[in-house]
Design brief:
The model has no long low-confidence stretch (mean pLDDT 92). Helices cover 26% and strands 24% of the residues. It has a nine-stranded mixed beta sheet. The radius of gyration is 17 Å and the shape is globular. The chain is built from seven helices and nine strands. The protein has a single domain, classed as Dihydrofolate Reductase, subunit A (3-Layer(aba) Sandwich).
């Protein structure tokens, strides 16, 4: 698949916290908050730089997340940077399997956009259209993220997009060459387990030559955690 020029789409940041052995949840796949209070602040700091925040539907529902800008000081920071007080919120579900009564639809502080593929039935899309500000379909069986990101840039003026997982969404973005910057918080735990999810799920690349290639540009330690920033080469 041809890569989309960055100028035609948002600059994509991906932020994840993981254990020392690379897990983002425990073996039962329950969402676990490994990170400290500092890691939570880091999340809101990143949101304060982004026009939109994106998350997969399963991760969103498991956490009851609303993807908002956080406390007032982060909203003020956004305004000082010339951004909207509240970021746009983007929910990804290829099959449109997200409950219309999910928490994110009940809070109306900023638009909620749903990205789906042709696998989402017309009935599901209609139900979601009643609660979301837009429901857009890209691709037939697999969600075409390059087209979706171009749409976000063109129709919603999204220049910086922050992705917060989960692993399947991350994998798709990596596979389509759409992650520009990776923020990793490494937490001092080891979960183990072949079924425990990692930051990029799915079958993976059979050879290193096909892997997404990044360069470490920043590292700092806070307590028992490491905060790393990588940029695409």
């Amino acid at each position: 698949m041809a890569k989309t020029k960055t100028g035609e789409r948002p600059y994509v940041l991906l932020n994840m916290a993981m254990t020392a052995d690379g897990k983002i949840a425990t073996a039962n796949r329950a969402i676990s908050h490994f990170g400290s209070r500092r890691d939570a602040e880091h999340l809101y700091e990143l949101r304060a730089t982004a026009d939109a925040v994106m998350c997969g539907a399963r991760t969103l529902e498991a956490e009851g997340a609303q993807l908002g800008p956080g406390p007032a000081r982060f909203r003020r920071l956004r305004l000082r940077r010339g951004l909207r007080e509240c970021n746009l919120r983007v929910v990804v579900s290829g099959a449109g399997r997200i409950r219309p009564d999910a928490a994110i639809f009940r809070r109306k502080f900023s638009p909620v956009l749903v990205l789906a593929s042709g696998r989402a039935s017309l009935a599901r899309r209609r139900r979601l259209a009643e609660v979301a500000d837009a429901v857009a379909v890209f691709g037939r069986e697999t969600l075409d993220f390059a087209s979706a990101l171009r749409w976000l840039r063109r129709e919603w003026k999204v220049k910086r997009l922050l992705c917060e997982g989960g692993g399947e969404l991350n994998r798709a973005l990596f596979a389509q060459g759409l992650v520009d910057e990776l923020h990793l918080t490494i937490c001092p735990f080891v979960c183990g387990g072949a079924r425990a999810p990692t930051i990029a799920e799915g079958p993976g690349r059979p050879a290193l030559a096909g892997a997404a290639n990044f360069q470490l540009v920043s590292r700092r330690r806070h307590g028992g955690e490491l905060f790393l920033v990588f940029r695409r080469r």
